[in-house]
Each structure stands twice: as structure tokens, then as C-alpha cells.
Write a structure and sequence with these properties.
single chain; 11 strands; mainly beta
């Protein structure tokens, strides 16, 4: 049973930083693509960032490029999203997701992902 548990959300002022964590369990994730999505109130879920568990390639939404970094710690089986220079428009519930059998590329659409966490709230005040 795959489990993804997010943590690290909170309230921060504009210009500040947060690091989200996604603790993964239940499988060996070396073949997975891991991603972060977010959903603001009244808006559709949107892609934030993705990377292969094994390997260095990454994919970012234009809106977070240069401010957010997705990384992983093999020893802790955890994926991170480092968020710097946060803006009020980054306010959303952030979700961790995992996808298996992605032969090429790093998908930015949620329907390609098999497993999801419960989400963690990020609120950025102006």
C-alpha cells in the first residue's frame, strides 16, 4: 500500500520560504516520477514540479521556475519542495503525487499520477 504524507505547510509572509516534505512508503520508489501539485480555493488543481526518483531531471511550472526546487532524500524516502520568494498567489493546498510506468518525460497532468497525499496548506500573506 503506497502512502504519501505531506508536511511543512503553514503561514508565511510574502518573500519568505517554506520547505514541504512528502514521506513515501509502501513501495520502492526508484522507478517512480514524483510531483507536487497545488489547488487554490475556487481554482483547478495545477502542476508545480516533478522529478524522477532516480535521476536528476526536473520539470517546473513557469509560475514557480527559479523560486521552487524539487529534491529527494533516498535515505529518508522523502521528496521535498523548497519554496523561496513566496507570493500571495502561491497560497494553496499542496499535494504530493507519485506515478509509475512513465517511460519518458515528467508529466504535468494529474491523471498520469497513481497515488496522492492528503495535502498540506500553504498560506502566503501580503
Amino acid at each position: 500500500q503506497v502512502q504519501l504524507v505531506e508536511s511543512g505547510g503553514g503561514l508565511v509572509q510574502a518573500g519568505g520560504s517554506l520547505r514541504l516534505s512528502c514521506a513515501a512508503s509502501g513501495r520502492t520508489f526508484s522507478s517512480y516520477v514524483m510531483a507536487w501539485f497545488r489547488q487554490a480555493p475556487g481554482k483547478e488543481r495545477e502542476f508545480v514540479a516533478a522529478r524522477r526518483w532516480s535521476g536528476g531531471s526536473t520539470n517546473y511550472a513557469d509560475s514557480v521556475m527559479g523560486r521552487f526546487t524539487i529534491s529527494r532524500d533516498n535515505a529518508k524516502n522523502t521528496v521535498y519542495l523548497q519554496m523561496n520568494n513566496l507570493k500571495p498567489e502561491d497560497t494553496a493546498v499542496y499535494y504530493c503525487a507519485a506515478a509509475l510506468k512513465i517511460s519518458a518525460g515528467l508529466p504535468s497532468t494529474g491523471d498520469r499520477y497513481n497515488y496522492w497525499g492528503q495535502g498540506t496548506q500553504v498560506t502566503v500573506s501580503s
